[in-house]
From TrEMBL:
Lineage: Bacteria, Pseudomonadati, Pseudomonadota, Alphaproteobacteria, Kordiimonadales
Alphabetized PANTHER family for the sequence: 3-HYDROXYACYL-COA DEHYROGENASE, PEROXISOMAL BIFUNCTIONAL ENZYME
Pfam families reported in the protein's UniProt record: 3HCDH, 3HCDH_N, ECH_1
Domain 3-hydroxyacyl-CoA dehydrogenase C-terminal: from-to ranges: 474-566, 602-688
Complex formation: Monomer.
Family recorded in the similarity comment: Belongs to the enoyl-CoA hydratase/isomerase family. In the N-terminal section; belongs to the enoyl-CoA hydratase/isomerase family.
Protein name: 3-hydroxyacyl-CoA dehydrogenase
Domain 3-hydroxyacyl-CoA dehydrogenase NAD binding: 294-469
Presence of the UniProt keyword Isomerase in the record: yes
Protein location: Peroxisome
Taxonomic source organism: Kordiimonas lacus
GO biological process: fatty acid beta-oxidation
Primary residence: other
GO-annotated molecular function: (3S)-3-hydroxyacyl-CoA dehydrogenase (NAD+) activity; enoyl-CoA hydratase activity; isomerase activity; NAD+ binding
Length: 699
């Protein structure tokens, strides 16, 4: 197929890139553009050129699927240099998104015309690389180094209006885009070439202090990432070097990024995020149910947060509480959340009122009868959940979807307690539910396909990453968290201090260590859970010291003391000698001779526990893909995205090594908690990876 075609409009040649779905710069597109430029340069019948795209968008970047394969000529940097060097004016006609290599092509054109809805951006940093076809050299020249560095480091999509202010877009048209671009091209004929690369930057205004400020401002969100620092170095080069030298520097730094394992991990996550909505048995043809109104039971932190997601996208919500006071308090919290956004300039006062207008409070189940989806977020016991579902069964209209936000409980059992089990599923939001992107969609034994399909689409509509999980204790995320927490806690009783365990995992890239997390969530929650489990069902050695703390009233951050202590009004965890005393006493009681544990050993044990449980979940069919598990851990638990999630991380270690390590732990710590997942064993023995598993079982 010809991906770049030519049509003449008078003496203007219009090149149309047509490479669905997003006109990525696959080899055929690069070759098509290069060949056309060569031909058009010498064509006396052509005065000017327009580059436009068919379909939904302008070129959305390099073809990510070609990454990793040996690069084929012509390379993109050569193509863009060729376009910029043209003597005849070249105009980009932009609709949809001009991203990455797509923006680089546009920047190499001499003019850029866009429609109002168009966006531009350099999102390469999200893929662990940097704009490697002149983007880091040309964007600072045309938009100024400050705007350029903002775009390159954030990877954000910049709206056409803002890009117009930056000087990147020359004209926004509300008429026919290609016609407007042709008009611009015709006007440019005979004028001196207008090349982005020839713009001079006033380097004096962007000295070392400017870049020191940039580094400081992004230090927190880029912790552990490889590419952002290289992006900054590229812009430094743009400011201080002539174009040719800057481009050379960009190439070197691009190669460094491309070779770094983070690039592979981040590209894995790009596709993993998009795979999750592919569910075996669900197709475009599977019917969907209409969701026009959502009911939420419980106006606590969770219920309120869940409700906000729907209100935010214009779906009205009926929110039910048992008492007026609790309802008022819950709606008050929702209002405060919106007002906080307004104070940050993200919402106007009018919008806050508009959003609040989407909420209807009620104390009566009967008021849920017009809801198409009802989600309960009430206290986490089977008895209470069944009672709530009994009420829902009574009042909900036929065809309404009934969902539980439970974190652990058996959805099959909840479903079976109703007269309409096929309408029931789990929708497990993560706290704070209005912020966290992850949503586990728990498919019960007989959840109807259209119920599942509706919820998968709905997750997208409310801007969540919805991952389908099977019914098991803790589903994907919390089930894996349990052995991870166990190993962290064991490290403490064996000799590490809580702050050492936290530091080890923080330095690995987790947003916080498990001890701090436990304090934040409330240490008493695990305590209550264990009380209900019975001592034979968990590793008592890991938790007895924690339980003693809870029994002393140390319930965590909410009471100012837990595994750490906290100064009044301060959330910074501070090591507490009293806690160490408890830990040392408990170690002595167990006859453990406390020894320092190196940080890498702590990380290894926690990671192996996480991976092994992930493999069990996968082997039992409770997750469709290893990459789905990665999506859960990255989006719900802050696992460093640059490591690609726990399963991809396991692949980078090699499953043979992972299996051997787990067997070593079995030998050392006993078989009770270290049983290798059968699937892990099988893949390791076959010399395969989780990625191989996903490829072979792609559903
Ligand atoms: N290469 C290959 N495939 C791509 C792609 C790319 N650059 N961008 C998107 N796709 C694919 C997606 O995988 C998806 O495929 P499936 O339908 O098979 O799952 C399909 O195109 C549609 O993508 P989305 O579902 O994401 O569609 P959307 O409408 O929600 O979003 C988009 C469209 C904004 C373009 C979004 O896809 C996106 O952000 N893409 C990535 C853009 C990007 O990162 N570009 C930079 C690439 S790196 C580069 O360009 C560096 C360089 O110079 C060397």
């Amino acid at each position: 197929m010809t991906t770049v075609s030519k049509a003449m409009h008078g003496r203007v040649a219009v090149l149309t890139v047509d490479n669905p779905p997003v006109n990525a710069l696959s080899h055929s597109v690069r070759e098509g553009l290069a060949n056309q430029m060569t031909a058009l340069a010498g064509d006396d019948g052509v005065d000017a050129i327009v580059i436009a795209c068919a379909g939904r968008t302008f070129i959305a970047g390099a073809d990510i699927r070609e990454f990793g394969a040996p690069p084929k000529e012509p390379h993109l940097p050569d193509v863009v240099n060729q376009i910029e060097a043209m003597e005849k004016p070249v105009v980009a006609a932009i609709h949809g998104t001009a991203l990455g290599g797509g923006l680089e092509v546009a920047l190499s054109c001499h003019y850029r015309v866009a429609v109002e809805s168009a966006k531009i951006g350099l999102p390469e940093v999200h893929l662990g690389i940097l704009p490697g076809a002149g983007g880091t050299q040309r964007l600072p020249r045309i938009a100024g180094p400050a705007n350029a560095i903002d775009a390159i480091l954030s990877g954000r999509h910049v709206k056409a209006r803002e890009a117009l202010k930056w000087g990147v877009i020359d004209e926004i048209t509300d008429g026919d885009l290609v016609e407007a671009a042709i008009a611009t091209a015709e006007k440019a004929v005979g004028k001196p070439p207008r090349r982005t690369g020839e713009i001079e930057i006033d380097g004096d205004a962007f000295g070392p202090e400017f870049f020191a400020g940039v580094r400081k401002s992004v230090a927190k969100q880029t912790r552990g990432y490889f590419a952002p620092e290289r992006c900054i170095q590229c812009v430094e080069a743009a400011v201080s070097l002539p174009l040719a030298e800057g481009l050379k520097r960009e190439r070197e730094l691009f190669q460094e990024c491309a070779k770094n394992p983070q690039a592979k991990a981040l590209q894995h996550m790009f596709f993993a995020d998009r795979q999750v909505s592919r569910i075996p048995g669900i197709t475009k043809e599977t019917p969907r149910r209409d969701i026009k109104r959502v009911g939420i039971i419980g106006a606590g932190t969770m219920g309120g947060g869940i409700a906000m997601n729907f209100a935010n996208v214009g779906i009205p919500v009926t929110i039910l509480e048992v008492q007026q006071e609790a309802l008022d308090r819950g709606l008050g919290v929702v209002r405060k959340n919106y007002e906080r956004s307004a104070a940050k300039g993200k919402l106007t006062a009018e919008q806050v009122e508009g959003l609040m207008g989407q909420f209807t409070g009620t104390l009566s189940y009967d008021d849920l009868s017009d809801c198409d989806l009802i989600i309960e977020a009430v206290f986490e016991t089977m008895e209470i959940k069944k009672k709530v579902f009994g009420e829902l069964d009574r009042v909900a209209k036929p065809g309404a979807i009934l969902a539980s936000n439970t974190s652990y409980l058996d959805i099959d059992e909840i479903a079976a307690s109703t007269s309409r089990p096929a309408d029931v599923l789990g929708l497990h939001f993560f706290s704070p539910a209005n912020v966290m992107r992850l949503l586990e969609i728990v498919r019960a034994e007989i959840t109807a396909d259209d119920v599942l399909a509706t919820c998968v689409d709905l997750a997208k509509a409310i801007r969540k990453v919805g991952v389908v999980a099977g019914v098991c204790h803790g589903f994907i995320g919390n089930r894996m968290l349990s052995p991870y927490g166990r190993e962290a806690s064991l490290a403490v009783i064996e000799g590490a201090k809580p702050e050492e365990v936290d530091a080890a995992l923080y330095n690995f890239g987790m947003p916080m260590g498990p001890m701090t997390m436990s304090d934040m969530a409330g240490v008493d929650i695990g305590y209550l859970n264990r009380q209900g489990m019975g001592r034979e069902n968990y590793e008592t050695k890991a938790y007895d010291w924690v339980d003693r703390l809870v029994e002393q009233g140390r319930k965590g951050l909410k009471v100012g003391k837990g595994i750490y202590r906290y100064a009044e009004g301060d959330r910074t965890p501070q090591p507490d000698p009293e806690v160490m005393k408890v830990i040392e006493e408990e170690s002595a009681k167990l006859g453990i001779e406390r020894k320092p544990i190196p940080a890498e050993d702590i990380v290894e044990r926690c990671m192996m526990a996480l991976i092994n449980e992930g493999a069990k979940i996968l082997g039992e069919g409770k997750a469709y893909r290893a990459s789905d598990i990665d999506v859960v851990y990255v989006n719900g638990y802050g696992f460093p995205r640059y490591r690609g999630g726990p399963m991809h991380y396991a692949d980078t270690i090699g499953l043979k090594n992972v299996y051997a390590k787990i067997m070593e732990f079995q030998e050392k710590f006993g078989p009770r908690w270290w049983q290798p997942a059968p699937l892990l064993k099988e893949l390791a023995e076959a010399g395969k990876s989780f990625a191989d598993y996903d490829r072979e079982n792609a559903g």
